[in-house]
Design brief:
Number of helices: 12
Number of strands: 10
Helix content: 40-55%
Distance between the termini: 16 Å
Largest sheet: 10 strands, mixed
CATH class of the largest domain: Alpha Beta
Amino acid sequence: MTIRHILVPLFGYDGDRVSLNAALAVAKRHGAHVAALHVETDPLEQTPLMVDVGVAITELVEAAERHAAHRARNAAKTFEEWQGATGTPIDAEASMRPGVTTAFLNVKGNEEDLLARFGRLTDLVVLARPQKNDAADLIAVRIEDVLFGAGRPVLLVPNDITEAALAKIEDGPALVAWNGSIEATRAVTAGLDLIKAMGKVRVLSIKEGKKDPHPASDLTHFLAWHGVAATVGEPPADAGKATAEHFLSAAREAGATIIVMGAYSHGRLRQLVLGGVTSHMIDAADLPVLMAH
């Protein structure tokens, strides 16, 4: 997949600057456009209604309006400061000028719907992993909204990642979590432009049951056709959270700069009830993760 357009949802919280920096690091390698988007939530859609009278509570609407306006101001300020500091040219008209460009768009409406709308027409969505603060749950939900609603690959980066680490994000090695699922396949094919230039790629296969209908050797053979020399690592022994920790540990040992994996291969409901690899990665991954559903 050629990366020419990168979407960066901004939420008006800590982490927006990290998302922009990560998008810029990728954009520089591919000459891509960084489209920053803030959805200013409509209080009438977000505020509960009184069952008996069917009208929104005035105080709640006003509070929601103030909060939405505050987030919008923060998002715009973060973008303005980032654009000024990086000197990234503003060009929202797809003029195909050489080099990296950027633009900021603020739209009002339903956050879930608009993230899906804009997310479906981009090559890559970049988000910072939510920090442990009041906004963490909201941003985690929005990451899921993009994965399920947009159907595009998501690059999730740690909220404390350094600029030096971002600059090496495509240097490799890459660690690929492979189970033969459609989601894992989409993640690999979406990430080909990111991993093709890497010197090393390691594939860890997730066996589901006694048989392995999708061996890692299938994937290494496919990658070889794209000029990627991949090796097979030891698969994890357990499922669920233990699997996620196994991937993170293997990635650290290999000095990996990115993990590539399918998201919610077993469905969001099951992972909410039982826990799972995707949820754990969203909560705890300490290096960039490229996901696709």
